[in-house]
Amino acid sequence: MDEHLTGGTVHDGFETRPYFFTICTFGRQLTLGRLQEDQMEMNDTGIMVEEEWLFTGDKNGALKLDAYCIMPNHFHAILWLVSDSGLRDKGLLQLEENADPNRDYGVALVGEIIEKFKATVTDRSNTVRNTPGIPFWQPGYHGHVLRSSKILPAMRRYVNENPVNWSRDLLNPLVGDPSCLVPAAWTSSK
After folding, report:
1. Residue 153 CA, distance from chain mean position
2. What secondary structure letter does DSSP report for 162?
3. Number of neighbours of residue 137 by Cβ within 10 angstroms
4. Cα separations (Å) of 161 from 1, 72, 80, 140, 164?
């Protein structure tokens, strides 16, 4: 993580800013590993999710990965759009005189990046397990722009400390929805 990424800044007329999001496994099943003494132990599936996330950052020049955390049944991440070139290339950023001041073009691109990441993980998981068409993630995701640089350190702390807080996390089936305890057919363990 780059220390200079501390809040929204203007770069070539485009405001770079951090985005926080959470995606959950299908049915919030515990498919990515387990917590052991406040440490996440990823299984092969969790390792695959991490590999794909890091690859997503490597292949997209308009994107900078920040804090992320893989939990047994969900994934938190903070990412930055650090250049408008990706937006221009995808036709999501119009020329200055045509720009709609009420539209957040970054949100559209972040949504596209997250959906592509989810699709890639799902395809890879289904290939490995020979389970074509089986969903891996819940539909959609929860996310928002971190509009204030003051909230960024707290969000990084939240992401990084997620394993320590698992015992109070509503996504933990022992705290929240117990239906997550039903093992998924394609869950693998290390």
Report:
1. 17
2. T
3. 22
4. 16, 14, 20, 24, 5
Question: Does residue 22 carry a pLDDT above 80?
Answer: yes
More confident call, 3 vs 24: 24
Q: Which of 1, 6, 19 is nearest to 109 (CA)?
A: 19
Instruction: Name the residue with higher pLDDT: 58 or 2.
Output: 58
Helices (H) and strands (E) in the chain, counts: 4, 7
| pTM beyond 0.85, yes or no | no
pLDDT tens by residue, 26-83: 988 899 999 999 999 999 999 999 999 999 988 877 788 999 999 999 999 999 987 6
Strands 39-42 and 9-11: unpaired
Q: Which two tokens stand for residue 59?
A: 């292949």
**Can you give the pLDDT at residue 1?**
39
Q: 119 — phi, psi (to 5°)? A: -65, -40
Question: Which tokens in the block code for residue 92?
Answer: 């999501």
Q: Classify residue 23 by burial, with Cβ atoms within 10 Å: 0-12, 13-18, 19+.
A: buried
Cα-Cα-Cα-Cα torsion 129, 132, 138, 139, nearest 10 degrees, comes to 160
Domain boundaries, the chain: 9-181
Residue 171 has a pLDDT of 82
- The CATH superfamily holding the domain 9-181 is Transposase IS200-like (3.30.70.1290)
